[in-house]
Amino acid sequence: MFRRFYFYLNVRGKLHYSTATRSECIPDIVINGRHFERDEWSNVTPKVLSHIGRKLHSQQGHPLFLIKQRIIEFFYKRFAGSRGNPIFSVHENLDPVVTIKQNFDSLLIPKDHVSRNKSDCYYVNSNYLLRAHTTAHQAELIGMGLNNFLIAGDVYRRDEIDANHYPIFHQLDAVRLLGKHDVFKSLDDGAKMEVFDKMGARTAEKQERHTLEACKVMEDELKSTLVALARHLFGQDTRYRWVDAYFPFTHPSWELEVFHRDNWLELLGCGVMEQKILDDAGAHDRIGWAFGLGLERLAMCLYDIPDIRLFWSQDSGFLSQFADKTPHDAIKYMPVSVYPQCINDISFWLPEDGSFTSNDFFDLVREVGGDIVEQITLVDNFTHPKTQRTSHCYRIVYRHMEKTLTQQEVNTVHKQIEKEAAHKLNISIR
């Protein structure tokens, strides 16, 4: 009889193994006690799974926690009830395993949209994936009757490897819904105005279901709120600009950029929520706005953190610089020391069946090399004129965050990457 191997991920992110007799050797994925059968869509790796449960955004004294709290405090102060109590609820412990409906369908993301590809997401199986954005929880919270809420959490995307990208990062989303009375309450003739237009047309300024007046009120509140947030974070004299954007779940949509250190930095994306999302969630009588931002990007800018891998470090030299700090303290990260890089190249012929994707290779390198892999860059893409076979050459930069690596140590890891890539990706090492 064959044995079926389960790997279980507990809340601390460690892998445990047990066995059960089966006629087939098909590993189940178990995340926080939930069992998921593998299928042809399963591409989540043990390395990625090991991060589930770390909840960096909830750890006091962590830079992501400080940034998150600073944003929450802003919303608590700006939006308060008649007795001064905050009207925004905060949700930061939602399960990162979501359904296809939650992550895509509930947000009106088209079936053929590139963001659904296996090369972009970490699928548990064909029905579940690790959320690619905290926006995946919007519809369920609206369906619970919530009108004003913030969502913070870890999100998972397959991406390139460099100092600014990591397969797990953290987002914060906000949603605000208003009924007719609240939309127009500040206007003298607000009682005569309508939120919805039964015979309307979609334009660049509004959705077909909304009146132009309602959409403009929502746009004004959204933009004034986010400009105030940007200045709360970066300073009152911060320059900003709005850029028209497209998102499947909002229209009209914008990105807010701030001028930071001689460059324009994309801070967040936002817009008026698509009314169909609200209708499907049972909020057909309300209109809403929403935005989302990345916590790592903010923290790297505000605290001078040079490498996204540092957020996962448990080294006291890093964490001690944020311990006992408040969200409003001015903190500038000081590198404990800078360890040298080791650079190795890897060249190989791609499989002729077209099955190779760069993100598959990046995941494999991360799985084998772990966090000593600082960066991967495609330095050569060559097609043989006679055979028409394609060759890639990637430059892999190795650097440990806490010690000096020897070239021998790096060569051992590099050889293992070559071996695993040849076996799992069907490439031919040159």
UniProtKB/TrEMBL annotation:
**Transmembrane regions:** none
Which PROSITE patterns would you find in this protein's record?
A: AA_TRNA_LIGASE_II, FDX_ACB
Q: The FDX-ACB domain covers which part of the protein? A: 337-430
Keyword annotations? Acetylation, Aminoacyl-tRNA synthetase, ATP-binding, Ligase, Mitochondrion, Nucleotide-binding, Protein biosynthesis, Transit peptide
Pfam family membership, one: tRNA-synt_2d
Q: Which NCBIfam families match?
A: pheS_mito
An example Gene Ontology biological process: phenylalanyl-tRNA aminoacylation
Oligomer and partners: Monomer.
Q: What does this protein do?
A: Is responsible for the charging of tRNA(Phe) with phenylalanine in mitochondrial translation. To a lesser extent, also catalyzes direct attachment of m-Tyr (an oxidized version of Phe) to tRNA(Phe), thereby opening the way for delivery of the misacylated tRNA to the ribosome and incorporation of ROS-damaged amino acid into proteins.
**InterPro entries in the cross-refs:** aa-tRNA-synth_II, aa-tRNA-synth_II/BPL/LPL, Fdx_antiC-bd, Fdx_antiC-bd_sf, Phe-tRNA-synth_IIc_mito, Phenylalanyl-tRNA_Synthase
Q: What EC number(s) does its UniProt record assign? A: 6.1.1.20
Domain Aminoacyl-transfer RNA synthetases class-II family profile: where? 153-335
Reactions this protein catalyses: tRNA(Phe) + L-phenylalanine + ATP = L-phenylalanyl-tRNA(Phe) + AMP + diphosphate + H(+)
Q: Which SUPFAM superfamilies match?
A: Anticodon-binding domain of PheRS, Class II aaRS and biotin synthetases
Subcellular location per the Swiss-Prot or TrEMBL entry: Mitochondrion matrix
**A single GO molecular function, which one?**
phenylalanine-tRNA ligase activity
The record's comment on protein family reads: Belongs to the class-II aminoacyl-tRNA synthetase family.
Q: This chain belongs to which protein, by name?
A: Phenylalanine--tRNA ligase, mitochondrial
What GO CC annotations are associated with the protein?
A: mitochondrial matrix
Q: Which Gene3D superfamilies match?
A: Bira Bifunctional Protein, Domain 2, Ferrodoxin-fold anticodon-binding domain
